[in-house]
Records
---
Amino acid sequence: MNIFTMIMSVLEDSGLLVLYHAAPEWMAMDERQIIFMLATPFFIGVFLWEYLKIRGNDKLVNEGESVRNFMLGAGYQTTELVFAGLVSFPVYALVWHFRIWDIPFNFFTAVLLWVLTDFCFYWMHRASHRVRWFWAAHVTHHSSERMNFSTAMRQNATNIFNLNWAFYLPLAFLGFNPVWIGVAYALSLVYQFFIHTTLVDKLHPAIEWLFNTPSHHRVHHATNKHYIDTNYGGVFIIFDRLFGTFQAEDEEPTYGITKPVDSKNIFLLWCHEYLDLFRDMAKPGPIHQRLKHLWAPPEWQRDEQEKKDSPL
């Protein structure tokens, strides 16, 4: 049995083969993208409502940038749609094939999956800020200097190749059907669209304590010194409270990244950090130091003296 036959057999056994029936293998559509595509017209409508409220304030919205944000989001959805069937589906199918338990789908397991998916999102999101390889894709989302609903659509088309989806594999290994995981993840992102705004002030303290809110997420997108690398939660903010990364909004946020990208080119907005990463790796030095750029924090640089002393 060759590897292709084995993977297709596992996909059939796991029930994931149904995702391939409506399209060729290279263009498989999963439930996540169906949810995203159905939600996108609604997202556009909500943004237009917000735009009518904040138009004329260049600190909050720029028409050209907003159009680019939706174009960046469309690129992200396209690569996910086209390549997920080749990149992530087979891996999830194989992991689920060797699952520990068969977890049934009911109200209680759905709630459990919702919480566990957010737990995985927290660590994926935290890694996306503290591991440069993951940051190379995530930086696109943070590179806008404005906060509005279109910013939520500002995503990187390389996400499917960046492997951050692997953070959810333990859920499949436990026994959650990958289709459910995908749906939970997609609904989480739908929720997160609505926290990208300046129009909503702080909510009731009980809501602010438990959930990720616009106030918490404004902090996450800010470059204020004590705001950086905080509030990684998706739907909930409790994991930030538990793991020491919570920061309340106590001053007006300044949005963007510490090294702004002065470009309107969509491809550069997707790839600029990869280019910087590979340039840093190409600089002379021991191979283990060059490779360290992949997993070190984005701000890490090799010691100048070490580079001078290196024979390479």
Note: Confidence is low (pLDDT under 50) at residues 14-29.
---
Amino acid sequence: MSSRRDFLTTSTMAAAGLALGPLAGCRRESPPPSATEPTPAAPVPPPAASATVPPATPANLGTRAIPATGEKIPVIGAGTSGSYEVPLGSPEFKQLEQAIRVFFEGGGRVVDTSPNYSNAEEVLGALLAGGGWRDRCFIATKLAADDRAAMEAQWAESQRRLRTERVELLQVHNLRAWKIALRYARELKERGLTKYVGLTHYQGDSHAELERIMRSEKPDFIQINYAVNAPEAAHSLFPAAQELGVAVLVNRAFDDGKLFTAVRDRPLPGWAAEVGITSWAQLFLRFAISHPAVTAVIPATGKPDRQADNLAAGTGSPLSPAQQAELVRAFA
């Protein structure tokens, strides 16, 4: 089977020699709590961005403002589902040490995790402590339990695993027991233990419910799926977030890797070179952050070269509406 390395190598060669301009503004989620997250197939790591393309740095990685406060965060974040679910001290963990260094040195800040992702919180906490990255990291984690007592215990465990008293964003995972969880998250916000609160989901058929709750509760953030083959969030949910002043994190921009299978024999669009895109991963991420409602996209990876490639998506100009529409038609 053709891998992400195969088609990224082909597309990178085709687009070599291009320079990226600054971006003016811009994961895979778990299933519902009643289901078990399937173990994803292990992808072959992609190459880093073309050597002729400047790597992402804090100076050239695009940022967007969180509407609630005006605080700016980088448009490319990182997820931890799957990729960070590895044994401490294992070869995969050692590789993550390199990947997270690429992330922070490239200007990344937002890392999204959850107590539902096996030991991902513990791994993230160890990586942040080991590299001295905590002060740079905008930690987003979640409440994923059914009652107040379980949430309190879960939050205490998240603090222990993440090795921090507070997080930047605490989200209600997949709207699970959302009335109880959102109330508790807001109490923690009042106590200074989180700066922002949010709501998440990962499925298109939950967009209407998420929009309804967002309109009534006005959280600081929502997190939702959005991709070239799943653009429904742009129809109503994103405009509502813009209207209400709610920040948006995008998960599943690669549709759990299915998009890489879909493009294994396809060249990049001819216009990709014009916007400094050298790989399909960059194109899928650039699509997500090109919508003005989107604050950041959070692809998960444990590979340093893939991390560099992802970050490169946030260092070029946004896609035009016509280019976005062309991609939606191509992957419909």
Note: The chain is about 35% helix and 15% strand.
